[in-house]
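Take just one protein record:
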Amino acid sequence: MVGFDGMWMPEADDPRKTNTPVDELEVIREYLTNYRTTLGLKCDDLTPEQLARRSVPPSTMSLLGLVRHMARVEHNWFYRCLQEHFDVPRIFWSPEDNDLDFNEAVADTAAVEDAFTQWRAQIAAADAWLDAGPDLSARIHTPWDDDIAVRDILIHMIEEYARHCGHADLLRECIDGRTGQ
């Protein structure tokens, strides 16, 4: 048993890595990868019902909703914005329901499989784009008239994951008491 009555995994089993990155892009990628992994760890070994369990009413937040939301965020920033595919529809979103990612997070095996498939596909696509070594100072002009640096978008992605991993900590603790990591 490791830490806090076995709620923490042994360090050797933790898939998150802490290296000594040499450059800025390596630092960004390590943080982003570790937060992505943390969200996945928070969802490990849960049933569709547990994944779809809502937090405190009237909130629609759930672990499954967070996975769907992060798939949507990855797709929006990495594919639509950074690769300038602005005409491609957003995933897990509609003009009628800006919270579709959370509102349609239901306790159904197919919905869970779809969410994790989409999330993993968006991460893989984002990582492939990052593998090309983008210019962090390059600026993107978005349809909503923002002129934003690639670096700012990548740091925003880290912030987005960090915020939602905090939510995931609390959601998981409410489900089975698991805390940490």
